Amino acid sequence: MRRVLMTASALALGATAATAGGIERSTQSVGILFEKGNYVELSFGGFNPDVSGSVGGGAALSGDMAASYGSLSFGYKRALTDQLDFALIYDQAIGADVDYPTGTGYPAQGSTAEIDSHTLTALLRYKLPQNISLIGGVRALRTEGVVNLPAVAAYTMNSTSETDFGYVLGVAWEKPEIAARVALTYNSEIEHDFTYHESADFSGVTGDSFETVTIPKSVNLEFQTGVAKDTLLFGSIRWVDWKAFDITPTGYDSIPGQDSLVDYTENVTTYTLGLGRKFTENWSGAVILGYEKHTGTPTGQLGPTDGFKSVGLAATYTRDNMKITGGLRYVDIGNATTNPLISGSFKDNSGWGAGIRVGYSF
Fold first, then answer.
1. pTM
2. What is the pLDDT of residues 239-270, one digit of tens each?
3. Number of domains in the chain
4. SS3 sequence, 91-157?
């Protein structure tokens, strides 16, 4: 029963995650380390946001500028000894897909931007007495991006693809008889030394420039506990140092009126809380709420959102060693005002996410 409920809650927390602060697309959960024995899982997810705004009190509408996207993740966990577990996780930790329609009259019309990433994390969990575990590992992150801003001197930028490394440290406590677990993990920052290929219809911009970009550090607190027969309470608190993230290519910065392509003035804490329930020997489900504070701080044109509220549902079917989980999530995307140069107003936006996960124990 506990394993079934944990699977439903894991998908609700992970595979349908979207719109978290900054450009985050992964919760960086270590939950797979607590699967029994040997285990493998494959997850697919998708998110369809609808984000639009206007300037001049509705004189020019942006149209939907947030493109739909999909995600893929893979996890493998192996019990090396009675005290030592190993896990290997692939996901796409960060990303962005921006596509302003043309012909709208909105100042940023025709602008596009894309950030792609691939993340591989290797983790070890060492079990100590009193149900305490130590967690440690290494994360490799490969990132690249491209930007096209026709309204800003026909500016374009392509970055090199860079791979760099960070580390994970954590500690966990469990009480198996009531399905209780608390895991606290720290993910270090990762620095990319990018080369940008820039061009624009402005003197001195076209050519190569160089910048170190910090993918920020984060802290994850994941928890769960049984609260009644066949019922599990679970959730997480995630803090990310997004104030450390800044993309400011030299050429772009030299164009009058421009500063950073992307930066954030606030760090972000994301809260989730859910309840899982076993209905039959084969079926269980979960409902989960998500929240991120609305700050009111002006945003950039490439990320005109500010906080969110969400509700998600997940259901798991278990047969023998196989578990199949599906999840659906609705997100109320926070209103945002873009920087004073354009002062766009983005309101009443939302999105739908869905995911499926197949897990197998052996």
1. 0.93
2. 999 999 999 999 999 999 898 999 999 999 99
3. 1
4. ECCECEEEECCCCCCCCCCCCEEEEEEEEEEEEEEEECCCCEEEEEEEEEEEEEEEEEECCCCCEEE
